[in-house]
Structure prediction request, 1011 residues.
Amino acid sequence: MSKEVTTIIATDCGSTTTKAILIEKVGDEYRQLVRGEAPTTVEAPFEDVTRGVLNAIMELEELATQYYARDEMKSSKYYNKPRKFVEKGQILRPKRDNNGVEEGCDIYISTSSAGGGLQMMVFGVVKAMTAESAQRAALGAGAIVMDTLSINDGRLPHEKIERIRSLRPDMILIAGETDSAKPKHVISMSELVKSARPTPRLGIGFQLPVIYAGNKRAQNEILEILNDSTALSIVDNLRPELERENLRPASDKIHDLFMEHVMQQAPGYDKLMTWTDAPIMPTPGAVGLIIQKIGERDDINVVGVDIGGATTDVFSVFKLEAQDGTKVQKFNRTVSANLGMSYSISNVLLEAGIDNIMRWVPFETDEHELRNRIGNKMIRPTTIPQTKEDLDIEQAICREALRLSFIQHKDFAVGLKGVQQQKGIAEAFDDASSSDTIVKMRDLNLIVGSGGVLSHAPLRSQSAHMMLDAFLPEGITNLAVDSIFMMPQLGVLSDVDRPGCAQAATEVFDKDCLIHLAATICPVGLAKEGKDVVRVKADLPNGTKLDQWFKANEVIRFDFERGIEVDFEIEPAKGFDVGAGKNKKVVTKLSGGVVGLIIDTRGRPFNFSKDFKGRVEMLDKWNISKTYVPKSNKDGV
Amino acid sequence: MAHAYTPGLKVAEFSDIEKLRRLPLLGEVLVNLKDRVSATQLVARTELPGKVYPMNVAGELGLNKADELPQFMLKKEGESVKKGDLIALKKGFFGLFKSEFYSPVDGTLDQISKLSGQVVFSELPIPVEINAYVEGNIDQVIDKEGVVVKTQGVHIQGILGLGGEKYGEIKMAVSSSNQLVDIADIKPEYKGKIIICGSRITSEALNKAKEIGVIGVVVGGFDYQDIRNILGNDLGVAITGHENIGLTLILTEGFGTIPMADRTFKLMTKYEGKMASINGATQIRAGVMRPEIIIVHNEKPDESGSKNYAESGIEPGDLIRVIRSPYFGKIGKVKSLPSELHKVESGTWVRVLIAEIDGNDVLIPRANIEVLEK
Prediction:
């Protein structure tokens, strides 16, 4: 049996920053001790992701040396000795003894999202039906949809072919016709693709991946037409019947190719693969694993979000009733490929619109100047906000990126069996699918935020506030955050088959990673200024006795630590719902978090003041950070 | 030792440069290994297939089944056709009620489908030629695909560009790096040239430059909002290079009014009158691509005292430039690199450096600077 693992180095190579953490067994328990970070080095002059990894680990060396130099570490074998993890451009592994000083680590693992977007074109027969389903499949798998072509999109065949050639997508998805239809249009569309003789954007020596997810009766013909000229994959029809979508097989296939594509594009990735003790897991996959484990372990409905530089990944785990009446957990994941806080920040501006960004900015700013600031963040993605104004702007953009990503997720997570969706014939012509989502806000128990802008917000109250504004929870929901953005590393660690690794992942996750921020009470209904919205009755552990009605348009925070469960009576005003139905009182036990208890009486939906002065006053009134005193002077570190 | 690395853009007076010149489809390489080539010399050539016209010929002939089509075709797959050629004929009873189909283009009959009843025609192929882009030597020939050109000279990376490859003479449009270029500063003699501007060019000046035939503009800053004026839409994701805007625009510093970096400006001034290859193509994603300016020459400057920042990181005494507010664009000298985290105005705890800027010692997040190579 191999030796117990006691020193673990884990990195996550993001598109902007490479994060490294050091986990060690201190006494009987594993703890995350220090973290380092460095810009991801996919740019010139290095164009090698491993340089950023080494730079981040060299930070770990410095910080770990300082950590063990403290008086309380006198009993440790590392006390006052330099920690060394890197030598001659390599991670020292396994540990070695250098004249009585232990150097190196037992295992090194990594996740990676360094890469970029997958650029796709999708084909469907009818624009508002199969083409839209195909688009949803591609979007849900994280692709950038460059164009959606269909028989009735108004373009002539040669124009479509020109479009395929000029856009040079990384992949094409062809869908169309139900499985009972006589094959016709999907065949002519495939002939169109063949005629275009498309070549992939990267590498002319490779055949373009084409996924066929259309009429299954046409599969042989499609094989005949496209097999020689493209790298063809055939999966189940994504619209087998008019009333049913089955996006998962197509999405999974796209997702697999997306991951391969991202990885292949990240320079130095081949070298990194030889360094790690477990296969490098894509960051979203690793975060998804952790979110699923939270949902399973605590038997709750969870939404997780990881907002990065280029993409925002949203995960959800919801309990659904199967046909036999048993409860099953359904996991969904979406990757919003062009919503992020650095590389994609200008696209957030484009998608959300300047007004939606400006509504969260609590000071007067020139639109022109704001656009320049956002543009500069895009072209210099590794910078961080030094001034309060810059921070406010980034947090405003974060709210919009999260909001838009969550809308995409809800649109994708539909149907009785996860991604499958039953629609009436009339509804099939209506593209408003979000009403069918399985992400029911009033059944949601926990929202977990991750990613630099949430994990490293200067104050935990700011993270809670961003998530509250972006996700607009309904009823009673808890908010949590990945303390220092280490969920991806713990996700991969939990899967490593070495003594101590699973224990390390669980212990570090509970003690150091997941920070419970707040319990939120958000009544659903139309809030009218000056009117009562909800009455909350509870004796909080710090001695505060709550028994009062809260009026409309407020966000109020109370200190309420996690750990002690408290009885709550929550009575909505007439017309409001706090989770049990309109006008129905909820009696429950709640536990808080580092930020406490948040009561949001803005209603759902809520409206902003139209004039600037009124808006700034509102933002000021809702600012829960004004009364928040962090327990640690390095709250968000 | 405190160690910090911050990616900076390349601004080198003398650098080894390699350029891969590759065809989009297989074709013919026109030069040989070790040949000396000029920037405008063609190095490879191919033909892109012409526009494609799928036609429902079975339908036009009134056939009941698509698989009957081949028996009525008068031309075969691969045959050349002229617009108006009869390519399919279905004779009716006693020669009456016949159905005919004529070629819609000059080109080739590509495909006859008995699955869908379509016949696919393509127009004559479009020639695609690739030049060397930079003057240099052919270092590698990739059979039927292209070549690698190797050369030496000035290599400057910008931060963002629009428009593709251009080759022309460097012309200074300003005398100082912090000068703004407006419409009155654009002169007719700039036609065909790559003009070097200062801290910003207005969109009116850019439009005038385009009108008089300037082929390239290199400038410190540009207003983000003005991109809409020249592209017709906002720039969401920074993947550029294919814009058809009449000239190539390269920003060396960023959005807003920002003086061009001193070193870049001095190099441009020194090489005024020389020919430069420029490309605005930018991809700010993994495998990042930045816009570039290349001026080929063989006079190796004295580089004693220069330092490889990629290997050693930043150290006290190094010159840096701040790339984020509140000191955006300022040049400073590193005084120390404390290893512990510091709290900055935003409340964020970060690794910082202390730099002397305008005579004062200021705290700056290490992520917010770029090194100015000596």
About this structure: The first strand of chain B starts at residue 11 and ends at 22. Residues 203-212 of chain B form the longest helix (10 residues). Helices of chain B lie at 57-61, 203-212, 226-231, 262-270, 309-312. Residues 11 and 263 of chain B are 7 Å apart (CA to CA).
